Amino acid sequence: MIIGAGIAGIGLGVRLLQAGIDDFVICERNDSIGGTWFEHTYPGCACDIPTHLYSYSFARNPHWSRLFPSQQEILEYVRRTADEYGVTSQVRLDCEMVSSTWDSRRKQWRVLTSDGALTGDVLVSAIGATAEPDEPEIPGLETFTGHRFHSARWDHDHHLDGERVAVIGTGPAAAQFVPHVQPLVGRLSVFQRTPAWVIPHPDRPVPWAERQLYRFAPPAQDLQRNLFFGIYEACGFGFRGRAPLVAPIEALGRAHLRRQVRDATLREKLTPRYRFGCKRPVLSNTFYPALAAANTEVVTDPIDRIEGRTIVTADGARREVDTLITAIGYRYSRSLLVDRVANGRGITIGDLWKESPRAYLGTTVPGFPNLFTLLGPNSIGLNSVIFSLESQIQYVMDALRLMERRALVTVEVRPEALDRYVDDVDRRSEGTVWTAGGCQSYYLDDSGRQFALYPGFASSFRRRTRRFDADAYMLEAA
Question: The domain containing residue 419 runs over which residues?
């Protein structure tokens, strides 16, 4: 049983069918396949990874219209892949997982969904890292009397024309939608905790001739994919402690800021004081101009509270707002799902992850037999998330083959294997830009531990997950 019909769930579904396994179901809470790319529809929503990398390895797409595709184009790609590979018929839409409990006597997962109860020998979480939007902890936020929504749940029925609009957050999502919102509104107040590193966006249309080349000569697209892969892997050297290698990118970001923001006071507000890569960087040619527009104000004073329609900052300033848009990110690895999955003793993953999310190879958790998590803690590399995802899918598929070959009823990772993995991840994270770069990001838990990214190369993670390492697991035969 697979939870989630986004890129992760569809990708695993394809590999299962290719292996001759069709006894599975994909539960999707929405009324459409697509996951993140169905739910995130804010203006300007697009991928910040080049198309050639942001594609399944088994489903090259020579028809991308841009180097960095839009939300709608990616959604169509995921739907088309599901149809072409026969996965669509395995998906149950409007089927939200309410709870999953391991039945230690029957050696099965008992799953309660909004569409009824199901059982399965193996449970796979494919909800991804952006399933649940996060909200800031601001006194009075819940009682805001204007109109409020998160960027990941954009309200297209609400028109912003001429309104006084506040945006909380200046990350990648805000950088995409703010330039579209700014020309419409009467006044735009952007509340910034930490400025982002913004570098020029290399997006461009893909000409017809280039698309035809990819169509009739697929190795040409593979060459582009490998080139981008190598560039992203090379960036890892700078992020892992070799600061001089990051300096040219920082110089590019500072030059981009000087060129697009003439006002010295605003430029000071927007200048990062931490190393590039410490937080997720932004690719944009339009974000800075939108922030520098006459009807936009960048607010760096912390928000103290919200009273009715008024946002009160720590300096005592009061700003009347008609619409409030929050865009601070997502509950990465701490989504509602972790509180809905319990083992035979009634302990949830959320209980185990209160201090810090931990999973062996980002995939398995001690005490939870036959449970696999895609894009779990410390599994995502600096490269395309789909590359990391396909690495884990290969690992899960090899585990399933082993279970069938040895007639196993359960596989459960050993606690000591997880401890060794976490120790290795923590050691590799020391001195990197994510832990020593001078910022607080969603990569870090409350103690400062880096729990999100795999600190090695994406190719290294691929090698570690190429085969299911049975020695790290407790195996129970029928």
Answer: 2-132+331-477
